[in-house]
Write a structure and sequence with these properties.
Blueprint: E1 4-8, E2 13-14, E3 17-18, H1 20-32, E4 37-39, H2 52-66, E5 73-75, H3 81-94, E6 98-102, H4 111-124, E7 129-133, H5 135-138, H6 144-150, E8 156-161, H7 166-176, E9 181-184, H8 190-195, E10 200-203, H9 210-221, H10 225-241, H11 249-257, H12 274-287
């Protein structure tokens, strides 16, 4: 399975359209700085405001730019199972190495509904699927027992845990063992989850600090716990600054401050408030990014 620091890649826009030149440059930036996997069209990639044509094209362009140098795990989640099947089949056809699928949002299905959703998609494709558990976005939590059931499905191979609960991660690892790789969905808990047996992180802050997040996960995978601990603590102030407002508002703003893209967002997301922008700039400067 996948391991290490995988970036939840932003989707750069310019004048309302996707900025393909910046997207390809971001892929190169990550590969040169040790990122272990690229995850386009997730929450950080503003997938909710991409139409189907844009979604497919972003995935295709990223796969082409990566050119098999690292795995590409395409975001293909939806609150419609049929749409999830369509997006995941499209990613597989384009050459994605895996798919990251958010649990159905707004519908708030039962645990059985969540299980059947993933089962249906998994049976429709051959690539590995990473379940994305983020109750703050979806309105429902995938319970450890449900994840243990999902782990029995051949190509449901991982979970991005963004519940913010270490107890949840403990129960998932305890119940699933080697059947399900656990990835942190909270940058600040990467070290903690990897110390418990997690395999890495699908990271927001890696958009601007890819080398440092890669060093953290690499140290943990090698059992260099003191080095990993120090790297995690070093990253904490920066991590907190990129979640001052709804993701991906701050991380896209940070990339624009670094000259990596315009920082343009699509409504209903709006630019950072002046006060939070100053806090972000301060942390970026202290980290050496400005």
């Amino acid at each position: 399975m996948f391991a290490g620091s995988m970036v939840a890649l932003v989707t750069p826009f310019k004048d309302g359209k996707i900025d393909w030149q910046s997207l390809e440059a971001l892929v190169e930036f990550h590969i040169k700085n040790g990122t272990n996997g690229i995850v386009p069209c997730g929450t950080t990639g503003e997938s909710a405001t991409l139409d189907h044509k844009e979604h497919h094209e972003v995935v295709e362009r990223v796969i082409k730019a990566v050119n098999k140098r690292v795995p590409v795990i395409a975001g293909t989640g939806s609150n419609s199972t049929a749409e999830g099947v369509e997006l995941t089949r499209g990613a597989e056809k384009a050459g994605a190495d895996g798919a990251l699928m958010i649990s159905p949002y707004y519908n708030r299905p039962t645990q059985e509904g969540i299980y059947q959703h993933y089962k249906k998609v998994a049976e429709s494709v051959g690539i590995p699927i990473i379940v994305y558990n983020i109750p703050g976005r979806t309105g429902s939590k995938i319970e450890p027992e449900t994840l243990a059931r999902l782990a029995e499905i051949k190509n449901v191979n991982g979970v991005k845990e963004a519940t913010g609960s270490v107890d949840q991660a403990i129960d998932v690892i305890r119940l699933c063992g080697d059947n399900l790789a656990v990835y942190s969905g909270e940058d600040s808990l990467t070290f903690s989850l990897m110390a418990l047996g997690g395999k890495g992180v699908i990271s927001t802050v890696a958009n601007i600090a890819p080398k440092e997040m890669s060093r953290l996960t690499d140290a943990c995978l090698k059992g260099n716990w003191e080095s990993g601990r120090k790297q995690q603590l070093k990253l904490i102030p920066l991590i907190r600054s990129v979640f001052l407002e709804t993701n991906p508002i701050p991380i896209k703003t940070a990339l624009s401050l670094m000259g990596k893209c315009t920082g343009e967002l699509r409504l209903p997301l709006t630019p950072m408030s002046e006060g939070n922008l100053k806090k972000l700039q301060q942390q970026m400067a202290e980290f050496g990014l400005l």
